[in-house]
Predict the structure.
Amino acid sequence: MKNFSTKSTVDAAMEMFERDALGRNAEIASFINLLDAIDEDDSCTIALNGDWGSGKTFFVKQTKLILDCYNDHSDLDEETRKKMQGVAESRGIERTKNYATVYYDAWANDNAQDPILSLVHSILKANHKLVEPKNRKNVANIFKSIVKSVKLNFEYFELDLKDILEGLEADNLFEELLKEENIKEKVKEFINSLIEERGNRLVIFVDELDRCKPAYAIQLLERIKHYFDDERIIFVFSVNLGQLQHTVKGYYGAGFDATRYLDKFFDLRISLPEINYEKYFNPGILSHWGLASDKQYELVCLTVIEHFKMPPRLVERYISLVRIANGSGFWYKDKLAHRFAISYFVPVIIGLSVTDLDTCKLFLKGQDPGPLQNMRINLDGAVHFLLGEKENNNFDETILRERLIEAYYALFDRRNRNKVVGKMTFSNEIYESINKRISLLSAACKYNLE
């Protein structure tokens, strides 16, 4: 089953930035201007705050991509670099300062014995190409000194670093290492050895810290504060500060002042704005993602997304589910009722299943039509379904909404089965069909989505 998502690959980040799909290009430009404005004699640590699934990772990876496209020593190929520069400049972002960048996924590394090593490893992995040949032996020496200083076996990293350190090796590097190293000085020396001839500042994007085990999250923050206090480094933490406060309290105790504790680590706190729903979820976008066949189904899906203010990650999950459930075929005796139930109820039920399970259960039992009443679903396409053969077509919206609720009870309230609403008769077999679709186990579900 093909994943349609806006995963933060270079191609996806570029495409999303080019059409400003999230409506955040202006904020990305402002954020880069902020980075440029930080005094070169000051270190800075920024907390980029946003809820889980709100697109923080995508925001920082788009920012990183723009910074990389203006650094001739980044890993971007020349074609991508030029294309991204053109896109950035067409969106009002002119050439930035020359930054080296690192993306560090804290959650992916929280099994490491010490965060300083995984962080230094990530920095080296991202920037080893910056090292001049004449400095390679020195960089290798410093890196291995740091490893030795925190009393870990270098062989733990040797396989992972084989490609990176190829050519940096020197004979008998361990023979003269001191048993006690000043780690802070070694880290500073390590950073300088990577970028000293390039005039770069290093921007380190730390992601997913709020998902880490409390002990690792606290240790990472304190290691960075103690060992990476360097005016040539800017740290950007993309975090859910509310969750991070819970993490701190989980480590130090419920009565601990987590807000004041975090203040000593973050110089700036910036809140990621909501995505522009009107721009991101405009009519036709679901078809762009592969949701086909029923325009009304698409419109109801859009209504559900906007009603629940779904963040991008949840939208991705929701669209995957409604695409499968949409499937094909109106097989039952009353095809109008079956089609209506799929178009108007299935997207709502799946939306409830990913946002509010308790309400979803009540909805399926015929005990709570509230979601239908509150969502204000567009019923322009439902007139043909909700009005009987002999009824005047000049019904106002109030009557149509009353009929929508009647249809809901006719389908989900067992006492009302086979009740006629407009041109539709909602039988038990249609009820069973809808249940199978939302379980994603119906023969009508479509799993092989292109």
In short: The radius of gyration is 28 Å. The chain is about 50% helix and 10% strand.
